[in-house]
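Objective 1b. Sequence-to-structure analysis of Deferrochelatase.
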Amino acid sequence: MTQHDHEPLEPRAVSRRRLLGTVGAAGLAVGATGGAVASAAVRDEPPTALTSLGATRVPFHGTHQAGILTPQQAHGHLAAFDLAPGAGRKQAAALLRRWSATARELMEGEAQGGGRDTGIALDAGPSSLTVTFGFGRAFFSRTGLTDQLPTELAPLPEFSADALDKDRSDGELWVQIGANDALVAFHALRALQREAGETAKLRWQMNGFNRSPGATSHPMTVRNLMGQVDGSNNPKPGEKDFDARVFVPASGTPAWMAHGSYAVVRRIRMLLDDWDKKSLAEQERVIGRRKSDGAPLTGGSEDTEPDLDKRSADGSPVIAADAHVRVTSPDTNGGAAMLRRPFSYHDGFRDDGAPDAGLLFIAWQADPLRGFVPVQRKLDRGDALSRFTRHEASALFAVPGGPGKGEYVGQRLLEG
Ligand SMILES: C=CC1=C(C)c2cc3[nH]c(cc4nc(cc5[nH]c(cc1n2)c(C)c5CCC(=O)O)C(CCC(=O)O)=C4C)c(C)c3C=C
Ligand SMILES: [Fe+2]
C-alpha cells in the first residue's frame, strides 16, 4: 500500500461561489459539478480537474489534524512564527482561534470570512488543502504554560554532521500547508500570515513540492530529487503498531496532546552534483533499493520487506552494511519508526552552480526519542546516503489532536 491509500478523501462538488469564477455565464444554468463539466466541454478541455483534483476536500475536524495521514500533496509551505513582544497566552489563543476558523473555511473551499479574502484561489476547489498547526518548545515559556510542556519536546540532540542555520530552525508556532494546487496553497499561507498580524512574526518559511496527482498512470509512492521512490516502507494505517508509533494515545500526557503527534522538520540539502555522477548501481547500493521501482535489492517488489540477512555468492550482504535502508530499519533500531511525509524543495542555484535543493523532511511520531532521534544518531555516524546530504535546519513541534466541531486547534492547551 502506498501513502496514497492512507486516508479516504471526500471529492465533492465545489461551492457556487467558487463555480462563478470558473464557468462564467455558460455554466450557470446547471448544477455545480455539472456546470464545471459543461463549461469544460464548451472550452474543449478535459473535464477532470475541478471534479477530482480541485474538488477533493479534506475535513478540518477529526481525531487527528489533517496533513498527517493525508496523501502527500503537490504543493507545500512550512512556516514558523514567534509571538511578538508583549503577546502572551491570551493573544496566542485568539490567534489560534482565527487561524483555525480560516483553515476550516479554506479547507472547505469557502472564501476567508470577514471580507478578508484576497481572491487568490477564487476559481479553485479546495484541492485537498490541509493546514496543520504545531507548538515549539519556546511557546510554553512565552505563554506561561511550562507546566504543560511535553517531555517529548526536549530539544533534539546536536548531531555531529549538522550545519544548522539557527534563523531557519525552531519557532514557537508552526504551520504546515499542503494542497494540490499552487494558488490554493499560497492563498492559505498568505491568509494565515496576514492573520498573524501584530501577534506573531514570521521566523522562517520554506516552500516544497511533490508529484501532482494524475501525473503517473497509477497512484505511486512519490520520488525525491535524487530520483528514488521515497516512502515505501513507511508505517501504514491499519498495521498493528501504527497508532502507537505515530500518535499520542487518548490517555497520553499531557492530556491536551491526546491523539496528537510530534513533527521533526529537517531541511536536508542534497549534494545533487555529486549524486548524479554516481552510476545507477552505486546509487542503488547507497539506498539498498532499486531506483526504477523501489524494490529492495534482495528482490520482490516495492512492498517486499528488505531481507537484511541475504548474502551474495561471495558472502557479502546484498544490502550493504551502510545502506540507508539497513541503517534506518526498525529492525536495527530497536523498533524505532516514524511516518515520513516530506516535500522536495528547490531554492535556485548556489554560487558554485549546484542546486540549492533537497528534502523538507517531516517525520511524525508519538515520541521523537523512540522515532527520529535514535535513527538520526545512527545516520550521523555515517550511512552511505549521508555523504550526499547536509542537514541545514531543524525544528521539533508538538502537534495536538484534531479539533472537534466548534473547537480551535490548541484550545485544550490554551484554555485547559
Ligand atoms: C532520521 C531519519 C531519516 C532521515 C533524516 C532520512 C533522510 C533521507 N532519506 C532519504 C531517502 C530514503 N529513505 C528511505 C527509507 C527510510 N528512511 C528513514 C529515515 C530517515 N531518512 C527510514 C526510517 C526509512 C525506512 C527504513 C525501512 O523501514 O526500511 C528510502 C527507501 C524507501 C522507503 O522506505 O522510503 C529512501 C529512498 C533521503 C533522500 C533522505 C535525505 C535527504
Ligand atoms: Fe530515509
